[in-house]
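Can't paste images in this forum, so I'm doing it all in text. The chain is below; anyone willing to post the predicted structure tokens underneath?
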Amino acid sequence: MNPLTHLDAQGRASMVDVTSKPATEREARARAWVRMHPSTLQLIQDRGHPKGDVFAVARIAGIMAAKKTHELIPLCHPLLLSAIHVELQALPPDRVQITTCCRLNGATGVELEAMTAASVAALTIYDMCKAVDRGMLIEGLHLLSKQGGKSGVFIAGDAP
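Text version of the structure:
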């Protein structure tokens, strides 16, 4: 049986056993965009949104989500992350770009944590702004890069 599988000896789903894997420095970066009406983006940039600072709330939501990824994704390992960064950038006329980075020294990667942070930050923007713009789109969630571990370095090619 391959020790890095989600199937146990009986063929049932189980968490991958990473006991024998060495701890290494690991990092993953992810990105997503929220497309919205230009007036919605302007409201966010002007910090005039009635619900408060959209970027500040989305950043905190992304950080919190990365820390709880194991509670959201079945069979995902609980990780002691050493760093979580969530950056939000207005891209006029109609988009917010969300870029995340998660790091740790451990036996398994942090790709899901970085992607979860980006997706929850995007959903938070949607939630805060839906009263003024129900037509927002969350787009292009993808892994930008990962490093560390046995599989080495991954850098995404041209993403959407």
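The longest helix spans residues 111-129. The chain has one domain: 24-149.
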